[in-house]
């Protein structure tokens, strides 16, 4: 199982918290599209084993960004067609496109359906005006709701929305209302993140200058617990720290990331992974276009040591509801890695943060609040 991620580095407006690679100027869209299509050709052999064995099956294509919905459907179609021509995409592959509510209308969603998109991801973040304003989101609460309704009308049942909690404008009551919207609109998948203040973002600058209220970690923890309670109560599975889904709606693309599968990232700043190796494209659209036009992949590569691979497995698997598989660790890295991990895990099991069940180490609901700290405690690197 393998996947392809495509990064579209354009947005209509800069959200204050965002540190992804994007530009609000759209003057480079056409040269970018030309370069992207060329990169697809240059990457044709990415998944091939050195022995030249058969192309592996691609079961997910994810168009993210940035905001892919700033592209015309014709451009999106050209990208998907090109990828299908050069890679072995299964007939039932998951084809996801990230969108913003202000871009979506019924007609566009119907066009998405017609070109083979079968999963739509909507950057909702909140259904409350003051909250959206704090984040400098471009869309209104009404557009957020309308985009969900229209996605359903266009025939999408596989819909995911993003939500952010822990913003100073979001009381627990308003957060509860956001969660109730998820249930009310029967949205099958939700990705939800605590607002974090990243360096060099407008939000960090504004907080430093006293122009925006800072983020309260206790509020974030409380709202995380509220989310667990409300969504689990309504039949959502908390299958990864930041992801909830109704049965049958897990993101196949995200599962590739969390299971150490191979994936190819196309476009500026996109990351790729092959067993024991990761690489990433330059985070600069102009440099990306120039390099591709010169016939050079603008990428850096890092070979992963056994220890790095082990740490990565611990970090990603612990975040999922399936947890760390001790048998898999023993088989892949040997008895010694497994013994040390079990020894390190003991104190977290004793204080109720980790549960050992059927050969797996799984975070308890309380442990989920400290996932990163617990994972790094289990790492091999000191
Ligand atoms: S729309 Fe998404 S990628 Fe663009 S600025 Fe906002 S959060 Fe960042």
Structure report:
With 382 residues, this protein is an alpha/beta fold. The protein has 2 domains: 2-256, Alpha-Beta Barrel (TIM Barrel), CATH 3.20.20.70; 305-382, Arc Repressor Mutant, subunit A (Orthogonal Bundle), CATH 1.10.10. Helix content is 40%, strand content 21%. It has 14 helices and 15 strands. It has helices spanning 29-42, 73-86, 106-114, 129-134, 141-153, 172-184, 202-208, 217-233, 252-258, 285-293, 306-318, 326-333, 335-350, 371-378; strands at residues 2-8, 58-65, 89-99, 119-125, 159-165, 189-194, 237-240, 243-245, 262-266, 271-274, 277-281, 299-303, 324-325, 354-357, 360-363. A 9-stranded mixed beta sheet has the order 7-8-6-5-4-3-2-1-9, with helices on both faces. A 3-stranded antiparallel beta sheet has the order 10-11-12, with no helix packed on it. Strands 13-15-14 form a 3-stranded antiparallel beta sheet. A hairpin with a 2-residue loop joins strand 14 (354-357) and strand 15 (360-363). Helix 1 (29-42) runs parallel beside helix 2 (73-86). The longest helix has 17 residues, at 217-233. The model has no long low-confidence stretch (mean pLDDT 95). Bound molecules: iron/sulfur cluster (SF4).
């Amino acid at each position: 199982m393998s996947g392809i991620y495509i990064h579209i580095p354009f947005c209509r407006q800069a959200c204050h918290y965002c540190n992804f690679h994007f530009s609000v100027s759209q003057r480079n869209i056409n040269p970018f599209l030309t370069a992207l299509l060329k990169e697809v050709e240059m990457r044709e052999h990415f998944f091939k084993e050195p022995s030249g064995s058969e192309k592996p099956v691609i079961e997910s294509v994810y168009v993210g960004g940035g905001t892919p919905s700033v592209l015309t459907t014709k451009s999106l179609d050209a990208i998907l067609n090109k990828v299908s021509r050069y890679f072995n995409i299964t007939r039932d592959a998951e084809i996801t496109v990230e969108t913003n509510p202000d871009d979506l209308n019924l007609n566009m969603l119907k066009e998405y359906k017609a070109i083979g998109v079968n999963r739509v991801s909507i950057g909702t973040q909140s259904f409350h005006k003051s909250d959206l304003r704090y984040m400098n989101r471009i869309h209104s609460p009404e557009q957020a709701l309308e985009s969900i309704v229209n996605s359903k009308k266009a025939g999408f049942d596989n819909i995911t929305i993003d939500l952010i909690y822990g913003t100073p404008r979001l009381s627990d009551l308003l957060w509860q209302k956001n969660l109730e919207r998820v249930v009310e609109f029967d949205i099958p998948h939700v990705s939800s993140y605590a607002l974090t203040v990243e360096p060099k973002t407008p939000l960090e600058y504004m907080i430093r200058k006293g122009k925006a209220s800072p983020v309260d970690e206790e509020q974030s923890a409380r709202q995380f617990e509220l989310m667990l309670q409300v969504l689990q109560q309504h039949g959502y599975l908390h299958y990864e720290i930041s992801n909830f889904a109704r049965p049958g709606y897990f993101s196949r693309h995200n599962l590739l990331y969390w299971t150490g599968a191979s994936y190819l990232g196309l476009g500026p700043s996109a990351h790729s992974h092959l067993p024991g190796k990761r690489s990433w494209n330059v985070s600069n659209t102009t440099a990306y276009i120039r390099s591709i036009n010169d016939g050079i992949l603008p990428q850096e590569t890092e070979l992963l040591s056994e220890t790095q691979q082990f740490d990565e497995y611990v970090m990603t698997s612990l975040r999922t509801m399936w947890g760390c598989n001790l048998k898999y660790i023993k088989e892949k890295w040997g008895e010694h890695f497994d013994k040390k991990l079990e020894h390190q895990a003991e104190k977290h099991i004793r204080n109720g943060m980790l549960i050992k069940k059927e050969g797996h180490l799984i975070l308890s609901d309380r442990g989920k609040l400290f996932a990163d700290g617990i994972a790094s405690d289990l790492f091999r690197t000191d």
